[in-house]
Amino acid sequence: MPNQINIIPEKCIGCGLCFKDCLFGAISMAERLEHPNKFKLAIIDLNKCTFCGACVQACKKFNAVHLIKEASIHLDKDISHYKGVWVYAEQRHGEVSSVVFELLSKGRELADKLQVPLSAILIGYKIENKAPELIAYGADKVFVFDDPILFEFQDDPYSDVLAHFIEQKKPEIVLMGATNIGRSFASRVAADIYTGLTADCTALDIDPQTRNLQQTRPAFGGNIMATILCPRFRPQMATVRHKVFKPLTPDSNRRGEIIKETIDASKIINRTKFVNYIKDLSAKINISDADVICSGGRGLGKPEGFKLIEELAECLGGAVGASRAAVDAEWIPYSHQVGQTGRTVGPKIYIACGISGQIQHLVGMSSSDTIIAINKDASAPIMKVANYAIEGDLYEIIPQIIKEVKKLRGLN
Amino acid sequence: MHFIVCIKQVPNTTNVQLDPTTNTLKREGVESIINPFDEYAIEEAVRLKERTGGKTTVITMGPPQAENILREALARGIDNAILVSDRAFAGADTWATAYTLATAIKKIGDYSLILTGKQATDGDTAQVGPGVAEMLDIPHVAYVRKIEEITTNTIRVERMMEDGYDIIEMPLPSLISVVKEINKPRLPSLKGMMASKKAIITKWTAQDIGADTSKIGLTGSPTQVMKVFTPVARGGGEKLEGSPEEIAQKLIGKLKGLI
Predict the structure, then answer these.
(1) Is A8 part of the contact surface with chain B (CB cutoff 8 Å)?
(2) Is the same domain home to A159 and A255?
(3) What are the C-alpha distances in Å from B92 to residues A69, A300, B141, B213?
(4) pLDDT in tens, B222-258
(5) Of B32 and B46, the one with more pLDDT
(6) CATH of the domain at A173
(7) Do B95 and A197 touch (CB under 8 A)?
(8) C-beta atoms of A279 and B163 within 8 A
(9) Rounded CA gap, A89 and A109, in Å?
(10) How far is it, in rounded angstroms, from Cα B172 to Cα B150?
């Protein structure tokens, strides 16, 4: 067996801390009548254990969990040739996604720590004019792939182009937006070139000694955080959601190099066919990258309640979200759903109106900077996570908020 | 036509409550369930079979107990079930999981379409589906909200995007990952539940599927967990009280710098 985990019976006092912290239900507490103090003994079910190490952390005081990860011993690839930090400059319909500017800011910091250049990879058709903007936001180099075959995003040609370019240039880090596009084709690229990919990172840092990228991400809907390494493979690939990092102030005087790459379209894998794009007219503002989100739930009582939510969102320049209950009642389309089976969002301001705050909803929005809850029930779970909890009738309170916002805007 | 659904056993977090004092999950006695997104993939496969004829197979990589979710998939109308289970698979990240599933699917051989849920609720990565497609060298579309048309050799689907949806066509065999909007899963029928109890589940080990042992489990995983910790809980907030007008004024006072 490549990895081993054991409980040292002499050290285990049966406190159950490891049992509590095991997310995989792999630990049980067995009676130990022969023990002088009748202490229980933790038992690890190896069929369930994923060797995540949470129990080791939980047992720091007693050190009764012994974990050996043998996989970290040998190196598979010669990784010393891999140099440089890349940001995939995602564009859709010719517009660079805002997450790219956020990634360039973080990428700049990582590249400076590693003392390597920061490059942006721009893939599409008739998008070359977007390259100078990427330099203004922090890139040293922009590699541009501009070809009709890359007109609309399709996984096949985009992953083929990026995977080949990675193998040719050998960067040590590749950052991508955790968007529908990024998450879909980053997975193909990582599978193809055999390297690690960490989804939805919320923090990235460099270990200066090993040059390893420390990638921290939420799991179980944000209930635990895990720091992930990719020590044996390169590049280290990570996706990052919108709004996790702040973009640099663009500087149009920054110097950088724009390099046009050519592709042989006849050699690109392209099995899918893009037929059409249908715009979602119900969403005036994209909920994934909105600064303000106003969400409605069952507490609205009726579908018309969303008119008031829309009005509130509009005066704040925000997007409209919803709880699963409101979507299941067909008051609003699924594309607005926030939570475990919908979208995960992290705006500056999240206003939950008539949403009780079931755990599935909370995991989708709890990383918001400021949460405001308006609810009739003061004991609703949402009221406990809210920075500002308002107990009352949303139909009385929201119109007053709209009035005050308009007043404020008028004064400004 | 042959439709294969990849599913995953995940801890059931839906009945889990937040500990009011620490704001963390109460994890005691968490049961295992089918990843909620995979229920839509199962339902869609059953519907496709109803539309085009053929057969359906469900496959999972997991511990022996994952047999339970396979039986549930059978109760929901799937024809065959395969459990890919071996101690050597433990600790697999998304790369090693995709490799294992792809290797097992190669052993199945003939298939038209592979379906997965858009992501699993424990890891939330959405990486395994596209990874399986790459390793099988077939095209894929992720975030599928509707299958518009399927013929013996092509499929046309709607891909949910942040700003609307795309319509994509691709040849079969291929892979789709589906979102909740695609259907409303039926509950297992009583007859299905009875039959699923007696059904024979195919069990494959690493050796059975001919997996390269250097590419499975923790050994084959490029990523490693360095540490796991509980995030700092959100502190208790402030209650805003008064008449609706006063509340609104207080709130705007608080938000002044932000809006």
Answers:
(1) no
(2) yes
(3) 12, 44, 24, 12
(4) 998 888 777 766 666 899 999 999 999 999 999 888 8
(5) B46
(6) 3.40.50.620
(7) yes
(8) yes
(9) 17
(10) 9
